[in-house]
Each structure stands twice: as C-alpha cells, then as structure tokens.
TrEMBL record:
Keywords: Coiled coil, Developmental protein, Differentiation, Flowering. Residues 1-28 are annotated as: Disordered. This is IBR domain-containing protein. PANTHER family: PROTEIN FLX-LIKE 2 (PTHR33405:SF4). Residues 8-26 have a biased composition (Low complexity). Residues 85-112 form a coiled coil. Belongs to the FLX family. GO terms for biological process: cell differentiation; flower development.
Length: 124
C-alpha cells in the first residue's frame, strides 16, 4: 500500500484528539468529514486516518474553540474584578473622606482643649 495509506513518508503521527476539554463539548466529528479520509479536504494534507487522530484543520478548530472558552472565562472573571475594584474604590473614597473629617474634628477638639487649659492656667 505505500504512502497513500500511511500518510506522508517519514512524518510523525498527528496528535490524538483531547479526551476531556471544554472545547470538545462543541466539537462534532460528524460535521468534519475530512477526519475519515486519508487527506484533509480543507487543507489538502495527507495523513494517516486512524481512530482518535485529527487532521490539522480539526486540531486548529479544537484549539480555537478551547481558546474561545478560555477568553469567555477570563472576560467573566475580568467583569467580576472590575465590579470589585469599583466597589473597593468607592469604599476607599468614603473612608478617606471620613478620615479627613475626623482629622478636622480632632484639630478643633485639640484647639478647644488648649483654650480651656489656658483659661484654667489664667485663673490660677
């Protein structure tokens, strides 16, 4: 049978399909008919069509799908971090305003105490 059934002469076997991946939930091997042939109908590359092996087009599709799922997960996480950041910045602003108010009150109280102390010293 020669090179037609074995794929390219001297080429390594393509990687196996991932067994458990978030992208495999959307992957439908029946929709990719080139997986059952000895060459890929999309990229025209020849390779050994064994069960569990994918051509380059299918591997790229799975890789792209996995990256899409990862990007969605990161976008959701980013939205959560942005909301947390916003609420923490708001709390920080309120705390800084409270601190400024307390420092102003503390200065007024200190000045009042010094005035009362002077009055007591003047009376003595």
């Amino acid at each position: 049978m020669g090179d037609e059934t074995r794929g390219r002469a001297g080429s390594a076997s393509p990687p196996r399909a991932p067994s458990a991946s978030p992208a495999t939930a959307t992957y439908n091997p029946q929709s990719l008919s080139c997986c059952k042939r000895r060459y890929c109908a999309n990229c025209q590359s020849s390779w050994e069509a064994k069960a569990g092996y994918l051509c380059i087009c299918d591997r790229l599709f799975l890789n792209l799908a996995a990256q899409h799922v990862e990007m969605q997960r990161l976008a959701t996480k980013n939205e959560s971090f942005a909301a947390t950041y916003y609420s923490l910045r708001k709390e920080l602003s309120v705390a800084q305003q409270e601190l400024q108010r307390l420092q102003t009150d503390m200065g007024a109280i200190t000045a009042d105490q010094e005035q009362q102390l002077r009055m007591l010293l003047d009376n003595i």
